[in-house]
Amino acid sequence: MNLLVVEDDVRVADFLVRGLQAEGYAVQLARTGPQGLALTRSSAPALLVLDLMLPGLSGLELCQTLRAEGCHVPMLMLTALGSLEDKVNGLRLGADDYLTKPFAFEELLARIEALLRRGREQRPRAGSLQVADLVLDRESMQASRAGRPIALTARELAFLELLMSAPGRVYSRERILSNVWGTNEDPLTNVVDVYVRRLRAKVDEGHALALIKTVRGLGYRLDAQPG
To answer: Tens digits of per-residue pLDDT, 143-160?
Structure first.
């Protein structure tokens, strides 16, 4: 998942890039408004994290320009200005969300994931996902393994789609909760572990190769690697 950070403050930019890369995102960095505009046009990022006060072209001007060009990439605007008028102006010009500095990194992640999830929901699903002999048709949302259909609930399908969308990526319980259940779910709940057991019973049981793996102390991943 490619994100573009447009931020001229060196310390804030470094903090954002390092933190988002540690979460598994591919991150590009622009330090001016014109650079952000050029990179958005050329690389089509999945989401922009956009500072309001930028040299060359402000965050508001950048947002307005991209929206006028028909660019629908989600934009999360960051600013040290916290007045209601600033927020309303940003949202009216096309920003999707607004976060005032200073902010907690976990809140930034939750907002990014919510915007990405909303974008996925608004786009029609196309094609299919496949890992080994496990296939998920994203248009019909039907799963099968070795050609045999797997009966899954809507929540199980959403969980499986998340794991299959990035084979090998480790998802923490908190990240799974945020993506599949939403950010309001109690982080102390064991619902993720319950659903992992359900998915394993339906996806892996009876097959020599288990696809759903536990990464001790970190979370879960899905891949075709043995062990």
So the answer is: 999 999 999 888 899 899
- The strand pair at 75-79 and 47-51 is best described as parallel
Cα distances (Å, whole numbers) of residue 43 to 36, 39, 40, 80, 179: 10, 6, 6, 27, 25
Cα angle: 61, vertex 63, 68; to 5 degrees: 95
pLDDT tens-place string over residues 67-96: 888 888 899 989 876 666 666 766 776 788
Residue 56's pLDDT band, with cuts at 50, 70 and 90, is very high
Cα distance between residue 135 and residue 179, in whole Å? 21
Q: pTM to 2 decimals?
A: 0.54
What strand order describes the sheet that includes 134-137?
128-131, 134-137, 142-145, 148-150
Smallest Cα–Cα separation from 171: which of 120, 131, 213?
A: 213
Measure Cα distances from 137 to 16, 143, 172 in Å.
35, 6, 25
Chain-centre distance for alpha carbon 200: 24
